[in-house]
Structures are given as structure tokens and as C-alpha cells.
Design goal:
Blueprint (H helix, E strand, L loop, with lengths): L16 H7 L9 H17 L6 E6 L2 H12 L5 E6 L2 H12 L3 E6 L8 H10 L5 E7 L1 E2 L4 E2 L2 H10 L5 E5 L18 E5 L10 E6 L1 H6 L12 H9 L9 H17 L1 H22 L2 E2 L11 E5 L7 H11 L4 E2 L8 E5 L6 H17 L8 H12 L2
Parallel strand pairs: 2-3, 2-4, 4-7, 7-8
Antiparallel strand pairs: 1-9, 5-6, 8-9, 10-11, 11-13, 12-13
Helix pairs in contact: 1-9, 2-9, 5-6, 9-10, 10-12, 10-13, 11-12, 12-13
Length: 388
């Protein structure tokens, strides 16, 4: 790989030099007032990105996976019933975590490439007249397949069933890159991480808890220590963590939030949509298709691109790295070897994306695929020239 080339994996994403420098700081006393001047602006900034007025924001030294565990362990008890759909590798992993925690998971098996089946959720929730289901899980953006699901539709399913279950949403590869509306969608726990839209290294699990979720923490009995939000809140009230915090990463997140808000949150979303649309034009020009089954579920942060039957898509990723020093994402789980992934989130511009598309084309031609050199780049260029 080459440090001079941008990466096109769906995370960790490219890091602005200013954010890297912000993380690289002298040691400070993390129990001093100076730390509070980093911590509290970060909590407020994340709340704004979540589009919430009341959410309690918690940031743990971890990743999005730690955010999943924070949601489960703080709000549930052993044996509680959870409703979830499995439509990709990351929804699968959250389901697996639930099962390892002794939770009873009702899984709605969904084709990899489809969005979450809100109508099936609604039917199941209406049938649950005893309200045994305590939580509904939803993966907003399935990173393995490049599929965005309609979170508002899942909330509508809960409301149509008049069901009191908590609503947990994995926004790891959407929050900070795609529109997310915690309050409007009635999300009780939103989960993300530092290494995607926030343009930081991996190392922070970022979660938002609604008032309803905070109430659930009072009676939940799953074991928790490191991820205890009550302990964390007590620390925040004293301008501290309950243990040593990752001060440098938090300082980087503070700058990231400032950069996002300087660009304008809606402008960030539009930039991601524009870059993603250019990629989709390129894929069409190559004569290939996305794993996502229809335009209404196309992700604006990652595209999973199907290769012809019998071709090992992982070869594209391997050759791009070895021959051209550029990183793309491999297929995962059921789509391993069948797709390669282009991440287009975080610190990215049209021009940077064109470089990735150009390398992808060269690799596919090198490997003998029926792709015309320059076709996808030209299609993306034509869109970017006139895109808004």
C-alpha cells in the first residue's frame, strides 16, 4: 500500500491531516478542567449530528462493536426477546452478540442486498400481544452489501403495532455521512464509531441513549462494567471518565465535529450522495451491477459491486493493493468472492473518487474482465461536472 494514495475501504476512512495533528497532543491531566473543555463540546456536537435534542451521548474507548454491546448490556436482561433481521454481515454479527449474551433472538432472514423488511417487523410486533419483544434491532447501513434501510419505516412498524419495544439502530457506517434523525425516528439507542464518517482512527464507540433507554438501564441486569453508561454519566458530571480516557482521540473528534459543522451537516450528506452517484454511474458503464437490489436501498457511503459468475472478486482487491498501492474492500460472509466494495465516505472529494475508479478500471482490465478502460471514469466525470 502507499500512504500517498487515498483508501477506498468503508472504514477506517481517510484522515484529514488537521485531525491527525489534533490527536497527536501532549499529555494532559485528564482530571483537570482542561479535559472538560474537550469532553463537553464533543458530547454536544455528537448530539447535533444525531439530530437529537435530548439524547445522552456516551463515548467509550472501543469501536462500533463496543457500541452494540453498550446498547445490549445496559438495557436488557438475560432471556429478553429481541427482534432482528439478518440481511448482511454486520446485522449477523449483532445477532450473534445478542445470542452470546443469552438473549432470545427472533431472526427475520432477509436476502443479502435487500433492506430491512418493515412490513414483516410490523406483522411480528402486532402478533406479540404480550409484548415479550423488548428490543427491535435495525442496521441503518449494511456495510457488507452497500444497502441502506428505511429506519423511519421500521419506526412506523413499531408505532402501527403500538408496541413498547426499545428501538436500537446501528449507524456505524451512516452517522456523519448520511442523514440520521434520532428524535424524529424514535431511536432509543444509536450506535456509531470514530473511524467512518468522523474521519478518525478506530478507537471510539459513540452511542446516543434516549430517555426511554436511560430508564431501561435502571432495571437491566446483564453484566456490565467497562460499558456502564451510569458510571460514565457520573464521570461526565465531574468532567471526567470513570477510567483513563483516550484524550487525543477525543480532541480529534472535537475538531472533526467542527469541520463537519463548518461544511454544514446537510452539505456533508449531499457531498456523499453526489460522490456515491458518480460511482453508480461508473458501475453501470462497466456493465456491472450493485449488490443492493434496488435504487431505494443504495448506500451513499459504500458500494458493493458484483462481478461476473465464476470470477473471484477478491482478486480485484488483491491486485489493486499489490500493483497500484490502493485499497478497496473485499466481500464478506455470503458475498465473499462475489463482490468488491468501494467505500466513499468521510474525507473524500470528486477528484479523489475519480482516482479510485481509475485504478479499479485498470485492475479489472488487467484481470481480463470485459471492461473498457476509461468508461467508468468518463461516466463519473460527466456526472461530477454537472452534479450539484
Amino acid at each position: 500500500m502507499s500512504f500517498q494514495n487515498p483508501v477506498f475501504i468503508p472504514g477506517p476512512t481517510n484522515m484529514p491531516e488537521a485531525i491527525r495533528q489534533a490527536c497527536y497532543m501532549p499529555t494532559i491531566d485528564h482530571r483537570s478542567p482542561m479535559f472538560g473543555k474537550i469532553l463537553h463540546p464533543v458530547l454536544d456536537g455528537v448530539r447535533r449530528v444525531l439530530k437529537s435534542e435530548t439524547a445522552k451521548v456516551f463515548i467509550f474507548p472501543s469501536t462500533g462493536t463496543g457500541g452494540w454491546e453498550t446498547a445490549l448490556s445496559n438495557c436488557l436482561s438475560a432471556g429478553d426477546k429481541v427482534l432482528a433481521a439478518r440481511n448482511g454481515m454486520f446485522s449477523h454479527r449483532w445477532i450473534d452478540m445478542c445470542q452470546r449474551h443469552g438473549l432470545d433472538v427472533q431472526v427475520v432472514e432477509t436476502p443479502w442486498g435487500d433492506g430491512l423488511p418493515a412490513s414483516e417487523y410490523e406483522a411480528i410486533l402486532k402478533a406479540d400481544t404480550n409484548h415479550e419483544i423488548k428490543v427491535v434491532l435495525a442496521t441503518h447501513n449494511e456495510t457488507a452489501t452497500g444497502v441502506k434501510s428505511d429506519i423511519a419505516a421500521v419506526r412506523a412498524a413499531l408505532d402501527a403495532a403500538n408496541h413498547p419495544a426499545l428501538f436500537f439502530v446501528d449507524g456505524v457506517s451512516s452517522i456523519g455521512s448520511m442523514d440520521f434523525r434520532m428524535d424524529e425516528w424514535g431511536v432509543d439507542v444509536a450506535v456509531t464509531g470514530s473511524q467512518k464518517g468522523f474521519m478518525l482512527p478506530a478507537g471510539l464507540a459513540i452511542v446516543g441513549f434516549s430517555e426511554k433507554a436511560m430508564k431501561a438501564t435502571e432495571t437491566a441486569t446483564l453484566p456490565r462494567t467497562f460499558f456502564d453508561v451510569q458510571d460514565m454519566q457520573k464521570g461526565y458530571d465531574a468532567n471526567a471518565f470513570p477510567y483513563t480516557p483516550p484524550v487525543g482521540l477525543l480532541r480529534g473528534l472535537k475538531l472533526s465535529l467542527e469541520m463537519i459543522e463548518e461544511e454544514g451537516l446537510e452539505n456533508v450528506f449531499l457531498r456523499h450522495k453526489r460522490i456515491a452517484t458518480g460511482v453508480r454511474h461508473a458501475v453501470k458503464a462497466w456493465g456491472l451491477e450493485l449488490c443492493a437490489s434496488s435504487p431505494d436501498v443504495y448506500s451513499d457511503s459504500v458500494s458493493a459491486i458484483k462481478t461476473p459468475e465464476g470470477f473471484n472478486a477478491t482478486e480485484i482487491v488483491t491486485r489493486a493493493a499489490d500493483q497500484y498501492g490502493m485499497a478497496f474492500g473485499v466481500g464478506l460472509g455470503k458475498v465473499a468472492g462475489r463482490v468488491f466494495r468501494i467505500g466513499h465516505l468521510g474525507m473524500l472529494t470528486d477528484a479523489m473518487m475519480l482516482s479510485g475508479l481509475g485504478v479499479a478500471e485498470m485492475v479489472m482490465v488487467d484481470l481480463g474482465l470485459d471492461v473498457k478502460l476509461g468508461s467508468g471514469v468518463a461516466a463519473a466525470q460527466e456526472f461530477y461536472r454537472h452534479g450539484v
